[in-house]
Amino acid sequence: MAFKNYILVCAGTACESSKGIALYEALEKELKAQGVDAEAQLVKTGCFGFCEQGPIVKILPDESFYVKVSPEDASKIVSEHIIKGRQVKELLYDQDQSSGTSADSIDFYQKQQRIVLRNCGVINPEYIDEYIAREGYAALEKVIFDMTSDEVIKELTDAGLRGRGGAGFPTGVKWGFTKNAQSDQKFIVCNADEGDPGAYMDRSTCEGDPHSVLEAMTIAGHTVGADQGFIYIRAEYPLAIERLENAIAQAREYGLLGDNILGSDFSFDIELRLGAGAFVCGEETALLASIEGKRGMPIPRPPFPAVKGLWGKPTVINNVETWANIPMIILKGSAWYSSIGTETSKGTKVFALTGKINNSGLIEVPMGTTLREIIYDIGGGIRSGKKFKAAQTGGPSGGVITEEYLDTPIDYESLQSIGSMMGSGGMIVMDEDDCIVDVTKFYLEFTVDESCGKCAPCRIGGRTNYNILDKISRGQGKVEDLDTLKDLAQAMRKASLCGLGQTAPNPIMSTINFFEDEYMEHINEGKCRAGKCKDLMSYTIIEDKCIGCTACARVCPVNCISGEVKAPHVIDQDQCIKCGQCFTKCKFDAILKG
Amino acid sequence: MTATAEEKMLTPEIDAFIAKWIDKPGNLIMVLHRVQEEFGYVPRQAAFEVAAALDVPVAKIFGVITFYHFFKLTKPGKNQIAVCMGTACYLKGGQDLIDECERKLGVGLNTVTEDGEFSVEAVRCIGCCGLAPVLTVNGEVFGGVTTKQMVKIIEQFEGK
Q1: Does any CB of chain B come closer than 8 Å to the CB of residue A360?
Q2: How many domains does chain A contain in total?
Q3: What ipTM is given for this predicted complex?
Q4: Of A375, A373, A341, A338, which Cα lies nearest the Cα of A358?
Q5: Which one of A146, A165, A339, A358 is at 20 to 30 Å from A234 when CA atoms are compared?
């Protein structure tokens, strides 16, 4: 080892916003200032996943795992750890060291198994050599020189790999269709249009390990006989775009993309195409229309893109996470991969665990892990000791999972059987302060806004459902509205043209199923138990607690709070706009929200 | 037509970009991205010039611009505040941040302050859910923002 220590600093978007770059620069400066820059190698890596505790610094070889590191800590890390070899205790995640100091000993990582994220937080994503050092492009070499196309497809099929975008279609079968299709040209497409609000696994993979996607796409190109690939990525992910562009340029330089890859007669290249903020473009036919430079509107299937896709040519489309699995399956074999997971769902799944949870972050677990393990063992339970209400998976197309189903092992089928879905991997935890009607309305607002407007069931059904939910959230709903919601949901499921419209009513069906009582409370009693629906809420001042400090009256934007100094104040309910500023301002808990 | 309108709007850099992409099918969206990168939005005149350069109908260009949320037809403020309204941010108070922003700046969503300093928009998930609620100002990400910090963040950019 040329260096005594390696200092890994997370440079993902989340840690960057927690001043990870300033930290990197501070460490760089300190290493030089203290004269040890020849002893320790500073490395910018991809996401460690533990975003809640960022920015994260990991020091090798002893694997010390420092959390919430600020640029001011740089001097101490260098003088203590690098020079004197002593850990900086106050920066360790587990300061009393009862369970060790490395990442593996932290609860957050113990139940995780990293296949897709194998290189995230390990290598510097800006250097192709680091990817190659970890068996990078070995799978491509194996595919080009030692395997036939049918063998590759059989390996993927035997591995049981299914599409990670949410639908779960067997990847090997999809590739088989395209391979067998007769055409002068074929295309490979990577769907990196991660539109599900609350999911960011694809962004982190592209930022932390861009070559895994490029390698897998090239493997697909060789297998099905395509010479051009496109990565369709959201314009909202500038760092991921930069890393992918850099990776493509390096791969071309190394002869891993372009003409005569690895000296063979196989040629393949990849280009980026930017999305422009349309959720429907996650649907494959809409995505292809967008790559073609058109409005991203879906078309009816069949024919499926595998047979007739981009510019009418057979096209393999897979999601980022699916791609990132493939090199490992080729290298380690289908038997290894299919030994992980459940009967019908093999391998691992990455989830973006967010919401009212202690350890927010990106996690990768074997299929079949239960929600309870994810939320309590990995996620560390609910924030501020509140009560768990529901977990939402599948984003705007999914549903909620309640307490009684927490022991359901996660796979495609089991989630569907309880009215939710795998989706792309967003997992949002809600607590007692979240109103189920409000959240459902949020999702419907999203799908209504994102509907392309081509087919009537989605365009009109979605809007009508949103209007009903809005009425309920304002306390003006009727009992029969629930039936209308359900009827419309059925119609949308059956008659919508694409996945967006077909799944848009899922949040409604799922929440009515589990939380009908809360809907009824809104309708019959005009009550929102979580205090989220503004029209059903009021702020009142508790006379006994108010000392008349006038803080609330001064902050009120509509001047509806009156009262003498040092005497209890009163809120004029007719004027109140329920902005909640007085509630936040009061230091004496004298304002009641309810 | 006024004299200024007759002057060419697309810069030589954009022309060079178009020249590089002109033979690639499906180039329209990439060109529009480049135009918006330059001006902060897609000016009407620029859209006409793109139409001429790529030989596509202007109607098609406006069809594409209006379909995608990312493209803007009006000039944004000098400092662009984007509040994330992804699910995680929504649950953790994204709407409160927007309300606070509107109160502080005296403008609604997607409008520019009178002095042209700020504009506020609500955006879809920017992928920093672990830090919710999140907002960006001119692309710089701020995580775990409270309404109180909101005021400070705005002040930080005021007059810059």
Answers
A1: yes
A2: 5
A3: 0.91
A4: A375
A5: A358
